[in-house]
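Try this one yourself first.
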């Protein structure tokens, strides 16, 4: 039984962490809910019991064994070293520690062995990366992959609970011909889409702090760099174009995969049918494939539209859809904690 704290407990991922911990009956002795001073005093139910939210502070971690952190990168940078100092192990959902060579970056279906190497912090990968890699890894292991091109269709949940609420309100306002003032998302989101709004490197000297090469945004670079780290293979060619679409909580991705050797479509089905965390959802006679509403609130990454790319040899397309808040964040973190 563990003393657990959730940093960012009032957010989209924090709330999902609570329901997954309850659902999976995680062995909790005590549970601390931490958020900003704005939420301090608010009561949140866990397994029928009211827990009062406390303000996250450096001294919040006395006696805590496990911290599940999803309050944003700058908050993790500031507070998680205090959690480690107090003796807790942190599973961090933000991007802050992910590329630190001292910090394991883990998807339990892929590299659970990395967990043992932790020095207090284990990082949970980017949501689009997790959703791509759960079906990609078994194929990579079975056949070898030369290159993968991903195009993403990302839900509002990736930008947090406020972005989800603003999408709902903006849809309602625009449907009634009213205007809507956004605070989180920079462009019209209802009935629209836009290339991902994470920091973009335009090549100017003041963009040297952006962790992406010129012409890429950070979300795209995360999919590339994190794949290399999780697979332990920086020779794998990965490319991504990331787009936000007006969907509430599940990301979709079109993957174009070039294998290192000749592979048949039945070989691919054979591997994916057995792959942990993957479910094939295809009804070709009805032209019915995985949709965000199919994946929302569910654990597996759904895969469909598996087909031969006619334009070059050894290449296949597939369409994958996964719940950004669950497998893309909270579920993956709880699975890591369970292995711990
Ligand atoms: P709060 O609700 O009090 O603002 P999301 O990713 O859905 O936007 O959620 C972000 C989470 O991070 C929320 O729980 C939010 O708490 C928390 N958070 C934001 N800023 C801070 C802060 N300065 N200290 C602690 N928690 C914070």
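Now uncover the answer:
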């Amino acid at each position: 039984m563990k003393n657990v704290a959730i940093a960012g407990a009032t957010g989209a991922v924090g709330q999902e962490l609570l329901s997954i911990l309850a659902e999976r009956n995680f062995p909790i002795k005590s549970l601390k809910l931490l958020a900003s001073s704005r939420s301090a005093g608010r009561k949140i139910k866990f397994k029928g019991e009211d827990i009062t939210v406390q303000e996250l502070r450096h001294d919040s971690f006395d006696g805590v064994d496990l911290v599940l952190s999803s309050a944003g990168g700058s908050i993790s940078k500031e507070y998680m070293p205090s959690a480690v100092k107090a003796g807790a192990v942190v599973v961090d959902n933000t991007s802050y520690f992910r590329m630190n060579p001292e910090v394991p970056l883990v998807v339990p279906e892929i590299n659970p062995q990395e967990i043992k190497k932790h020095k207090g912090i284990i990082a949970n990968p980017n949501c689009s990366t997790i959703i791509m890699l759960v079906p990609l890894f078994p194929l990579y292991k079975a056949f070898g992959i030369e290159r993968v091109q991903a195009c993403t269709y990302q839900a509002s949940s990736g930008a947090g609970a406020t972005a989800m609420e603003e999408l709902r309100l903006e849809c309602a306002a625009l449907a009634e011909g009213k205007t809507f003032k956004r605070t989180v998302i920079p462009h019209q989101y209802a009935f629209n889409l836009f290339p991902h709004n994470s920091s973009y490197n335009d090549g100017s000297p003041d963009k040297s702090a952006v962790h992406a090469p010129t012409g890429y945004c950070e979300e795209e670079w995360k999919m590339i760099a994190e794949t290399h780290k999780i697979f332990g293979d920086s020779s794998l060619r990965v490319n991504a174009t990331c787009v936000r679409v007006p969907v509430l909580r599940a990301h979709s991705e079109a993957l174009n995969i070039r294998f290192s050797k000749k592979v048949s479509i039945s070989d691919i089905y054979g591997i994916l049918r057995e792959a942990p965390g993957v479910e094939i959802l295809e009804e070709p006679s009805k032209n019915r494939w995985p949709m965000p509403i199919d994946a929302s609130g569910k654990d597996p990454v759904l895969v469909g539209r598996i087909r031969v790319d006619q334009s070059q040899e050894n290449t296949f397309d597939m369409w994958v859809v996964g719940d950004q808040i669950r497998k893309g964040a909270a579920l993956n973190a709880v699975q890591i904690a369970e292995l711990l």
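Discussion: Helices lie at 12-23, 73-85, 127-143, 161-175, 218-231, 265-274, 292-295, 326-339. Residues 8-12, 14, 35-36, 38-39, 56, 71-72, 75, 160-162 surround adenosine-2'-5'-diphosphate (CB under 6 Å).
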